[in-house]
């Protein structure tokens, strides 16, 4: 039943580009605190920040054959999202595959497994979020799937979904939700900008967010150190 | 019973400043190899090195409400020390809270949980030692405590204790022990300085520390490779 | 039975120097995908890349006495390989020991345990691959062994074996296998060089490696997104 | 946006009952090796084996409020499937909740978090698969969702899906796929039964599965120990 | 500075005996959800349930010398609480030490490290809560401390504190707090008993705890499956 | 280069049978505290205790093909020892393979990976020490090696080595060392027997092992609780 789904729908590149300065935490909050991938997926170098559309690739443990197949399905602006069918930290991906993806305009790799050649990937400035760095390569024996929905880092990723990855981690935004999430994220950032200035000037969050009263209602007491029993 | 203890006693800033060039390993040795926090607390960027007095904050899992409360209790020269009541790697702390702490002269954050906005925190040069980096934020529903003794990274931290954090980790020094620890640490460093020169010149530790005899007594033998069975 | 084996055989420095530009992943592949140490051993700074001959040192948990003994057995071009007899993440090694090793021309440390003083080690550019960074030091009470075969990071290392360590991890090459591994690694690199150019020009791996037919034989199907059920 | 979805569709109890002797491994193979939850979810006692329809419940870290809400949505033959929005090992569930579920005919609990009162749960023979056993309870402050699709143990579970759990772990079968999976699983078991007898009589798998030739084609060689170099 | 503190104060055995049917979860709740040791400390067999006064013992990594010293400080009704100064999973404790403790009337062992001889310990019915089971023994070279306050499993334990351990984990109760905790725990159990009956009869927790209104206030909505978008 | 080594040398069954009542901890001590496999390898049921000669099998991640090959190389009294070439927790082994091994007189399985069908394996009383229990099966695509030396659980195992496994873990004894280890283990057990009786009668280890003086020399002090500062 291994299958490669071709011609997946993608977001309009202009919509994607509007996300390009959004960070993961803001997008995650803006869509109701959903869609975050496991914090075990870390960037191989920092800082790094990419936004793009997901091409998904499901691989067998210790076998990167399908990544070679997935490359052909990638277009400029895509992000390759790879997950093994069972936990594996082998180095599925190195500088040759990165060269190939970079030649196709792919923006980065998100992989719930290991990668290698990280010194070269860093020099190439090809960003990768992975679960491990491991020199052990893989074989090419077992088929998998390309552009099927998969679970990567504990989150469901559909082909064509929008991926945002930065130093804090990775979040997936459903294709259909993108415009709404963008709007909410923009509102959130605008709101934060004003707060940052006030906080920098010394205004307390307790006052800025007006939470003193609610704290008191819940029963919070203040007591000087000198009055402890 | 949630409580905020105010007006905690602090070390004289001059005493704190005398610690400012001490590293964690030296302080740890100087106080009899005690007080180290778990090595799972790592700096979000390196190099980083801070010394200051602890303001402690106990939070519920997935809830950073009390950090906002704790900010008000912080003074210039303090370090905020946060621990959840059960293990949690959510991103409790980001650039807005850091802005607020920096405005109050706080030197950094030590947290046995996760943080986010690490790219901005790095730009701001606000140092953080944390257990995780995670974009998932928190809610504001549950009370906790500020300036009570707590266990952070497996070590007991009292409000007003001296915290030292560097690339090797974090150590806590009891307020009352600080002068004695300082004296021993200085002696240790002076002693090491001479050793470093000798070792750099090629003198062996075996001779410098005069341990050949004790090794022999314990039964260590030397045998050429060619004489193995 | 603790023993220090002296005068171990080493590879000719010229042979070692021929390996100096080989990366871990290539060497690992060239020797039939064997000899890799656990990916839990990470460099304390990046980039880092060393090649040298192993001096091995087996230590008790929480006790670095034998490292001081091992230093004397090291020669220029060596790499010190340390493993505890049971898992331990204490900081066995710091800047004083590094000073001593650097004075003897040792190229770096590989240790399946913890190290400390990493800020100074980074300044000194003394590369270390370790399982942890931990300020907690060790005692000097229990004997161990120097230059016996040991398991480090799950791989068998014999004294005199060739060690290669880079940003991807660490691999061990048996002394006797070194010439053969070198030959195969060179062939591999030559082969990759041509591929990199082609991939950069947009040639697909599917075509370059001629794997389309084998994928089809194994049953891989292609199906447009629009034709899904 | 927290929501409770009521009146979810369920499989016909007769279809469910036909699965009652199927083990997790067989069902997993029968549906193309998909749908397995993480092996980190372990039964609190063994042996244990349940089959039923999923009622899903998404909870905040350290907060079991929504489990109380989910109980009302459960019917005889259901299995409650709980996942926190971020990793948490608190004891979300104990003997009181189990009493309530047992009163409603619920067959067990699958939870990607912690549980407590395991001695009583074992006496009650209320089976639970959990990520941890932890006496730390939870609060009731934050809303979540009931009967929305969620990721539990790295697998997508929809309300109404069929869950199978045994000593090997937990697998989810899509509601619509159940009849087909049942058919394939039955065929698989029938096939295995004959094999078991032959293997017990001493027939080798190499002959039974007729794989000697394929092994040889791939290059496997046999060599007596005495002829090694 | 290694020290053995003798003649520690202990709770009246009658007070301890009143705790003998209390479980860990109840005691933990009764004292304001504090004092729980890490859930990584697991019983080596189940069921197991002990209550007693703590004799504390701090050991070096890989070195159980001080446990032999601690045995002499134990009295009938005590529980030995052991923590290493840095993480270590060696088997510090086996059937000989258990024989010695059992001869002195000690009720069990709580150790944030490893133990061995678990088959014999199970036969002897000497209960142990440990972080690991490991056949690797320890040496006797390095001093530690007996009956000093220590951190075990992330919780502070003072000599003479009350320890409760069962299948859910381990909790520490401060000596001075014991009477108050006992009272609250009893009230809690009485309260639960009535609830259990009602829940068993089919009354919903939503009604029993009267939380429907508060859920609605917080914004929880109910929606039939058939009305989803 | 995949190879199956046939006709490996084995210990005389009578020598093996003399080990049949030896536990892992005793054998480990008797051979100088070496040869222990990682404590991450746990028995799937307890109690369990086997002794036998190793047939080794190196497998690819997620691929159990070579286990089928290894079965043919097994003889009565053997123990199958399996290690993957990179970390993998898939269920490599289930009841069919166990049936086949049991038919050949094999005593058990030691595997640094996952197994499944543990309920049936327990009923069959076929003992297994594994790193995980996981229902996810494996494929049959990639060759490996049988009866080559391999690293299993961090220890080197040669074909024909003696394996001992019990509730505490697994230890390997080199074939040539077996007689000497046996002698030392017997002496150790005889010595322990006398000690057990004395300890049970209340004699303290401090006196039995005569260590009071050495403790004092090292600087251990005793101080009554009431005299603390």
Characterise the protein shown here.
The structure is a homohexamer of 229-residue chains. With 229 residues, chain A is an alpha/beta fold. Chain A has 8 helices and 12 strands. In chain A, strands 2, 3, 4, 5, 6, 7, 10 and 11 form an 8-stranded mixed β-sheet that branches. In chain A, strand 5, helix 5 and strand 6 form a beta-alpha-beta unit. In chain A, helix 2 crosses helix 6. The radius of gyration of chain A is 21 Å and the shape is elongated. Chain A starts with a strand and ends in a 5-residue tail after the last strand. Chains in contact: A-B, A-C, A-D, A-F, B-C, B-D, B-E, C-E, C-F, D-E, D-F, E-F. The interface between B and C is large, with 40 and 40 residues. Strand 12 of chain B pairs parallel with strand 1 of chain C, so a sheet runs across the interface.
Secondary structure elements and their pairing?
Six copies of one chain form a homohexamer.
Chain A: E1 3-6, H1 13-18, H2 24-30, E2 42-43, E3 50-59, H3 65-73, E4 78-84, H4 95-103, E5 108-115, H5 118-124, E6 128-133, E7 145-146, E8 150-152, E9 155-157, E10 162-166, E11 169-173, H6 178-200, H7 205-208, H8 212-218, E12 221-224
Helix pairs in contact in A: 2-6
């Amino acid at each position: 039943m291994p299958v490669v789904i071709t011609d997946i729908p993608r977001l309009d590149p202009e919509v994607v580009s509007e996300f390009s300065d959004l960070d993961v935490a803001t997008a995650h909050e803006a869509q109701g605190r959903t869609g975050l991938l496991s914090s075990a997926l870390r960037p191989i170098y920092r800082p790094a920040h990419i936004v793009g559309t997901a091409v998904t690739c499901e691989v067998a443990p210790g076998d990167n054959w399908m990544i070679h197949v997935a490359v052909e399905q990638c277009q400029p602006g895509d992000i390759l999202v790879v997950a093994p069918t069972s936990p594996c930290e082998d180095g599925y991906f190195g500088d040759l595959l990165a060269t190939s993806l970079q030649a196709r305009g792919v923006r980065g790799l998100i992989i719930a497994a290991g990668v290698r050649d990280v010194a070269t990937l860093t020099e190439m400035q090809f960003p990768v979020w992975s679960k491990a760095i491991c020199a052990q390569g893989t074989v090419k024996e077992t088929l998998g799937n390309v552009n099927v929905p998969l679970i990567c880092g504990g989150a469901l990723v559909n082909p064509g979904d929008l991926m945002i990855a930065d130093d804090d981690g990775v979040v997936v935004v459903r294709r259909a939700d993108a415009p709404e999430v963008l709007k909410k994220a923009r509102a959130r950032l605008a709101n934060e900008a004003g707060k940052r200035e006030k906080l920098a000037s010394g205004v307390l969050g307790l006052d800025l967010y007006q939470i003193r009263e609610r704290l008191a209602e819940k029963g919070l007491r203040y007591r000087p150190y000198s009055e402890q029993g």
